[in-house]
Amino acid sequence: MTGSEFLMQFMSGLTTAMIYFLIAAGLTLILGVLKIMNFAQGGIYMLGAYMSYTFIKLFGGTNYGFWLTLAIAPILVTAFFCVVEVFLIRRFYEKPAIYILLMTYGVLLVTYDLARMSWGWIIKTAPMPPMFQRPFEIFGLFFPLYNVFLIFMGFFIFFFIWFIINRTSWGKIMRAAADDREMTAALGINVPWVFTAVFGLGAWIAAIGGALVAPMAGLSADMGVEAGIIAFIVVVIAGLGSLPGALLASFICGEVQAFGILVLPELAIAFMYLVMVIVLIVRPWGLFGKPVIIK
Amino acid sequence: MGLKTKRALLVSGIFVFSATFALLSIASMAAAKPLSPIKIGIVQSVSGMVSDFALEDLEGFRVKIDEVNAMGGVDTKDGKRQIELIVRDNKLKPDIAVKNAKSLILEEKVDFLVGCISSSCALAVSEVAKENKTLFWVWDARTHHLTGARGHRYVFRSTGNTWMNGHAAANYFKDKPYTRYALINPDYSYGRSQYDAFVQGMKSVKPDFKLVSEQWPKLGTTDFTPYITALLSAKPEVVYTSMWGTDAMTFIKQAKGYGFFKKIKYVGLFHGMPLLRPMGQEMVEDIYVLTECPFVYPGTPENKAFYDAYKARTGKFPSSYSIGGYNAATFIVAGIEKAGTVENEALIDALEGITIKTIAPAKEITIRKCDHQSDYGITIGKTVKDPNWPWFVLKDVEIIPGAPTMRTCDQIMTERAAENK
Amino acid sequence: MSQVIEKNKNRMWLWLLITTGFFVLMPLWAPEMWLHLAIEIFIVALFAMSLNMILGRAGLPSFGHACFYAVGGYAFAILVVKLKLPAFIGLLAAPFISGLFAVIIGYFSIRLTGIHFAILTMGFGQIVWAIAHKWYSFTGGDDGITGIPIPAILKQPEVFYYLAFIMLIVSSAVIKVVQDSAFGQTIVAVRENRERVTFSGLKVWHHLLLNFVIAGFFAGIAGALLAMVNRSVFADFGYWTSSAAVVLMCILGGVGSFVGPMVGAVIITLLEHYISIYTYYWQMILGCLIIILIMFMPGGICGYIQEKLQKNEPGA
User: Fold this and answer.
1) Residue C3's pLDDT is what?
2) CATH of domain C31-312
3) Residue B314 CB contacts under 8 Å (≥ 6 apart), including other chains
4) Contact at CB, C141 and B143, closer than 8 angstroms
């Protein structure tokens, strides 16, 4: 294998990693702050993709149409899921975990059929914006420009959430509410709305992940199921709720996938699971998680 | 509204709900008509990953049945009988398919079963059919085991199978100058069978065949970039694939950015209408497509009549899946007319060795007597932009006959004997 | 107070007798399809009851329970098809193999609670699914194992009906005995207050692990029975949606009650069978059902009825 082929494969792995991260980051945030598992996350991602498909088509597949879509479509999906949070999920934060698990599963099923009803059965794909229809050259190698954009967006989303959580007063409130609800409420902060905001932010990230994937992949209602599993595996490897962990886990999964298929192509389907098995046996609480062992 | 009223409402709602269901099911069981129609039970995956293909082939089947019903029904010894279709959704799960098959046979008292788009579903229902001595007609599940090692008297298939597809592709490449091949197939039983068939076929017809890379992405992969770069660095001349649906779509879109199709001859199995239509102008020119019936295949009157009937029924143009469904229904109707009855044993005898005309390029299809497998041929063509259509169509269509790609009856019988030992 | 309990107990026995009698006599008059549905219900009910030992009694939200179901089915299929053992040996051995898997998975996950437990069990469940889905030479991959030979007599639905029924009755009796024993009471005590039980000097996680293994054992029986009745087994039995479906049954029926999971199994099985006849959008209906259930009847149907009964009993 030559150096340039190595670099190509590495960049491919990075693209995969960023898609994994975009899918899993929202779930990580929700897990970390709200301490709930959101099965509907895959459904949000799928709706984000379908919604972008509609808007990109609406704007005629132009460049500015693509930017407008990125701004509008995820927000619409987020708004819908904020309503879901307020009416269906909010009241169960203090109840046993099983209720929210099952509730979000129910929401996932409804989302799935809603997409089939609204967009029909036939698979879809959004046109690639013209500005990305050329290669990007580095060290004499060519990559699709969109993949480079995707990698950039992955890092951008990471720093964006990291900044919100660690460097803004909003983030402080979120962290406080996650640590101690009652104390935060006693300080006069409307905790339920903080939670809705966190849920909304998590949904927005998943929806934007879907929106970014829409021009480069085929869309079907089932894409959410696959995405849900990817998000799940990434957060397990990362340690529940750790954002840097999710980035690292995505990176490991992506690169293991990219180089693994060169050596053992017939195991392509299993690499993510293999990484998960190793992590579960060595560090059951994940790479960046805190041990939560109870005697 | 108080909590109590809410609950009372809910409980009464549930009661009404279940009572309605109970009544409906009793009503459907009690409905027995004087000159009873022929009942065909359809086990199909109308929800789940392959639902759009499943619906397309179902519509094709219905077009034929509608034609027959509009002419007063199908001729039997007792006179003309209408045909009624009862569809059950198996959600792409073989265990639900088994339950549906039982329910269709026992509750709905269907005369025979058709359907199943996935191989695992077809294999599972095939067992039910064997046990209940009920005819089971398959046209979209492709596993060659269905009519091969696991075949029996009660199962038929009117399309090709994985074995035939792989060998047809190999026959196509026999005289071509390419020697370096790479394969990319979805990692589940369908992709694996297609891989085996192609590799075996190539080895038997082309001694200088060299497999430089094989890739096994998961069904439903969102990101093919690692596979694309891996294939590129193996430097094959031909990439052959059995990916379908969103997988094929995603692969083509992502590979386009790497200039993949300028460097490599890409041959896609069943990349016909179900892929060309949704991809629209995003498709790439000069991709080689294997399909049983290319879109706008030379417009014979029968061909056009079917396209119009299908368009009138669904508002869409048919794909090779729809034509597969149409062929299957044509076979069944021809069989009933020949036997004069739907009594399964007589019908099976009538169907063995039967030949029908098809609108597909293969022109004629015959069910072989020994294994109930059809000799449906396949075609290969090149994608090209066409100003008349919003999607790409195929040009330079070549026909690859089906019969030479089939295993011999002796081979099949030896396999069956080994399986049943 | 004690009189009321006595009265309820008598009433319970009466109901038990009526339902048992109904099911014993069912093959005499019911159409064959009902028997097939009933067999499926018995199997799924046993599966749901085994989950309730973890979900309801121990209060641990398992989302990977279907993997024991699948392991049971595969163990049966592989023993019978590959090793050519008689079916009844397969049926005997399958639950032990499931139990063995439960030991391994339980060892890692049982020390966790709540969401962490859910995710870890789901993770292990997915791994088992991935192995079954991928290991073609051993599990048949995604084609599963079909055409499992079983004794000719069991191919008659009436006979299999009684087999499944007896398995359900015996298993639920054993589960009942386990739940009422000191061991079972400890599990409930752990659910209510884990710390207190720990301070009392009991090795809590030994108890929980044993409970987890027993649950896996019975799920294995259910899986083996399902493989027997379908003559086939598929990796999808162990997929996480299968686990979610059985969690739904437990919650719908009511986790706090012994018969709850059975009630849930009956309703979901019938609903799924009949809904999908009338619509392609069955997931929408199932999803709405889940949402309505959790919003308005979090205690499940049995919890709801119990609540009603307690309110109506004067002096209770």
Assistant:
1) 60
2) 1.10.3470
3) B59
4) no
